[in-house]
């Protein structure tokens, strides 16, 4: 097993067991809040359950849910959606292929919903599954008794893909490879709501193993380049454009910081040691605005950047599908 693979699996596991989770000061797991009329944000319990956040969007005759979540998270989100509206859940949008966002797909389709994603999500699943599914040690995944993840039933490859029933326009976007090759966003132009999946998180939740770190801030900028009042991240609390600005800044700074360390001759092992000695954060020279994105996963993230720069290709291509 090479280092890249170890890192990838380590990072994936870390995300699931939420090692990345740091403070939790303002976390409000399992709560639902209305963002604008007919749009709700449900905060997942990442700490205990590894769940992602969900967004519930009410259309004239149906509901759209963002992110399938893990199976247990899917059931919680579906139950809450039922309390909010008697309309059927028609679409469930997978922002990307990771288990905490897409392994609940089969739960939703069994309820009669259509799982929907950018084509890159289905391609990522092909690349990484069934390996990760089989390695996932969670009762809610095992109980589904499936041999692999259920891919999204409907995909689109030109964006934005739009659903507009006269009451609301919902745009599904892909702005490039950041967190994964499939990173999908939802944008509601009238309500100025941007739901981001994990390409933009509010806190130290950036798993980079499948990512393209050099391109990540460009995706963040592209997503942010529109009228936005409300930002609904895949993990962490909702907010406004400060989340977009901070996420972009953190990505640029960790990349530049690692580049600087490499110029000073620092190896992957050096970075690991600096992480353990708690000197890494200072050495990477973050600005105060990046603080919210810095957590226990910092050394691992810095190593991903180091590998991406050394091997001159997106990290997801280094470790992808192995
Ligand atoms: Zn993810």
Structure description:
This protein is an alpha/beta fold and 322 residues long. It is 39% helix and 18% strand. The strands form two sheets. It has a seven-stranded mixed beta sheet. Strands 8-9-10-11-12 form a five-stranded mixed beta sheet, covered by helices on one side. A hairpin with a 4-residue loop joins strand 3 (54-58) and strand 4. The longest helix is centred in the last third of the chain and has 23 residues, at 241-263. It is globular, with a radius of gyration of 19 Å. Zinc ion binds at residues 96, 98, 101, 179, 198, 207.
What's the β-strand tally?
Answer: 12
Question: How many H/I helices?
Answer: 14
Query: What's the helix-strand series?
Result: HEEHEEHEHHEHHHEEEEEHEHHHHH
Strand residues, percent: 15-25%
In terms of quaternary structure, what is this? single chain
Strand order of the largest sheet: 1-2-3-4-5-6-7
Ligands, deduplicated: zinc ion
Question: Which whole number gives the mean pLDDT?
Answer: 93
| Shape descriptor | globular
C-alpha end-to-end distance:
10 Å
Largest sheet geometry: 7 strands, mixed
How would you sum up this structure in a few lines?
By secondary structure, the protein is α/β, with parallel strands linked by helices. It is built from 14 helices and twelve strands.
């Amino acid at each position: 097993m090479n280092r890249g693979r170890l890192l990838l699996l380590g990072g994936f596991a870390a995300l699931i067991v939420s090692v990345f989770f740091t403070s939790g000061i303002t976390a409000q797991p399992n709560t639902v809040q209305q963002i604008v009329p007919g749009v709700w944000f449900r905060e997942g319990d990442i700490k205990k359950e590894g769940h992602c956040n969900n967004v519930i969007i009410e259309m004239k005759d149906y509901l759209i849910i963002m992110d399938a979540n893990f199976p247990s998270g899917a059931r919680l989100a579906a139950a809450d959606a039922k309390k909010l509206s008697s309309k059927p859940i028609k679409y469930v949008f997978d922002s990307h292929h990771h288990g905490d966002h897409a392994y609940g797909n089969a739960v939703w389709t069994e309820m009669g919903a259509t799982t929907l994603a950018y084509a890159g999500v289905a391609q990522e699943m092909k690349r990484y599954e069934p390996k990760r599914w089989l390695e996932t040690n969670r009762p809610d995944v095992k109980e589904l008794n499936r041999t692999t993840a259920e891919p999204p039933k409907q995909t689109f490859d030109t964006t934005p893909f739009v659903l507009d029933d006269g009451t609301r326009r919902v745009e599904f976007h892909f702005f490039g490879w950041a967190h994964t090759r499939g990173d999908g966003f939802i944008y509601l132009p009238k309500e100025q709501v941007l739901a981001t999946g994990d390409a933009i998180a509010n806190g130290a939740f950036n798993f980079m193993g499948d990512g393209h770190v050099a391109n990540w801030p460009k995706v963040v900028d592209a997503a942010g380049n529109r009228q936005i009042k409300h930002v609904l991240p895949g993990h962490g609390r909702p907010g406004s454009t400060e989340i977009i600005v901070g996420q972009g800044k953190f990505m640029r700074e960790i990349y530049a910081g690692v580049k600087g360390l490499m110029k000073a001759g620092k190896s992957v092992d050096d970075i690991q040691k600096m992480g353990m000695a708690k000197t890494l954060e200072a050495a990477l020279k973050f600005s105060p605005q990046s603080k919210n994105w810095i957590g226990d996963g910092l050394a691992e993230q810095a190593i991903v950047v180091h590998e991406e720069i050394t091997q001159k290709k997106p990290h997801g291509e280094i470790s992808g599908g192995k």
